[in-house]
Design brief:
Blueprint (H helix, E strand, L loop, with lengths): L2 H4 L1 E4 L9 H4 L1 H8 L1 H4 L20 E11 L6 E10 L9 E7 L3 E11 L5 E3 L5 E8 L2 E9 L8 E10 L7 E4 L5 E10 L9 E7 L9 E2 L5 E8 L11 H4 L2 E7 L7 H20 L3 H10 L6 H13 L2 E2 L8 H7 L7 H7 L1 E2 L1 H14 L5
Parallel strand pairs: 2-11, 16-17
Antiparallel strand pairs: 1-12, 2-3, 3-9, 4-8, 5-6, 5-9, 7-8, 10-15, 11-14, 12-15, 13-14
């Protein structure tokens, strides 16, 4: 990995009142929405089925734009794609799939069109479907899907959509530059979260930026930008690590503490923070002493005590292995998150981490150093 690919940048937000943030990003939003009229419609102009950078390609991305806005009440991200279909096999890229995470994300403002080789336009007015990609405990990964009409070799397809994020949350952001297709031009921007009432900062790092791409920088308008061109198509391999981790990318992380560049100092601080969370949840309490008295006998050998405590905790319901409840089911159940191990013990259930911490608290109450 090159030096430039592995360097990280810390950006501390300047003290700009929130009322000034909302308007400064407006030109980016207008630009994305106006892409349909601002971009030349003709699909035949400069049509070259073979590109030196993408020999044998079935399609290429002519233009891609990602504009993320975290500074407002509702974070959102505008996405725009302009794709040239080069071969009959490339028609499969008319099937669009937009993934999102249920409960914390929503896909809105979907617009799309096909530009025929003669320059005439067919606007998409068909049905948009929703399908489940992954469903697991605490996660439901869905996708909006639709197919653009009348796509053939020589056509250009364009589509635009907005991802809305849950209000009152701060989400990490990731720019994944490389994809299945060669990308001729791409631009990215992020207006980071800012509040007068918090110390949340944003930092970013990047991996394997395309040749000639300048590192992302924050401008005087407090917007982080990156432009890239001639991004190679990503080649997948059998048994490779997760694809996105290997792709050209920029990652943004929010933190409520200043960024620490020294690894030893970082892990020392992180360790203290995690230990404080553990002690707050599993600290010594009278309830745990009473509970362990019901589980073990004073005459039990140390190993027998540990085995009995473990067996008792194993009898509790582990919610990590249960099917995730819907929002309506959670509202009906009116279940509140456990604040400590005493809550977990009284309820008789908890998730995997809570049960582990309950075991620790019981072991301590039995007189073990842990």
């Amino acid at each position: 990995m090159s030096t430039s690919a592995s360097r990280a940048v810390l950006a501390r937000r300047s003290a700009v009142p929130p009322r000034h943030l909302s308007g400064s990003f407006l030109p980016l939003l207008v630009l994305s929405v106006a892409a349909y009229t601002a971009t030349p419609a003709s699909a035949s102009i400069g049509f070259q089925p073979v590109l030196p950078q993408a020999p044998g390609a079935r399609a290429i991305v002519l233009d891609r734009r990602v504009d993320r806005y975290d500074a407002g009440h509702t974070p959102h991200e505008d996405n725009y794609f302009r794709i040239k279909i080069l071969t009959e096999e490339g028609r499969k890229y008319a099937d669009i799939e937009i993934p999102f995470v249920k409960r914390h994300q929503g896909v809105i403002n979907i617009k799309a069109r096909t530009i025929r080789p003669d320059g005439s336009i067919v606007n998409f007015d068909g049905k948009i479907f929703e399908k489940t990609i992954v469903k697991a405990k605490g996660l439901k990964y869905l996708a909006k899907t639709f197919t653009l009409p009348e796509v053939q070799a020589g056509s250009i397809i364009e589509y635009y959509y907005t991802i809305d994020f849950s209000e009152n949350y701060v989400f990490e952001s990731h720019w994944i530059l490389s994809g299945e297709l060669f990308t001729k031009k791409a631009s990215f921007s992020l207006k980071p979260y800012y509040s007068d009432y918090s110390n949340i900062n944003v930092r970013w790092s990047w991996h394997a930026l395309p040749a000639g791409t300048l590192e992302p920088k924050e401008g005087p308008d407090n917007i982080v930008r990156l432009e890239a061109s001639n991004i190679p198509a990503f080649q997948t391999e059998d048994f490779m690590p997760p694809e996105n981790e290997m792709k050209s990318r920029v990652d943004f992380v929010y933190d409520d503490e200043p960024f620490e560049r020294d690894p030893a100092k970082f892990w020392k601080r992180t360790g203290k923070k995690l230990n404080a969370q553990l002690e707050s949840f599993a600290g010594r309490s009278r309830a745990m002493e009473q509970a362990v008295a019901q589980i073990v006998s004073p005459n039990d050998a140390p190993e027998a005590k540990l085995q009995k405590i473990y067996a008792r905790v194993q009898q509790l319901r582990n919610s990590s292995y249960e099917v995730q409840k819907t929002e309506q089911e959670e509202k009906r159940a009116k279940e509140k998150d456990a604040d400590n191990v005493e809550d977990v013990w009284k309820r008789g259930y908890g998730d995997g981490r809570q049960l582990t911490w309950l075991y620790l608290a019981l072991v301590r109450a039995a007189g073990f150093e842990a």
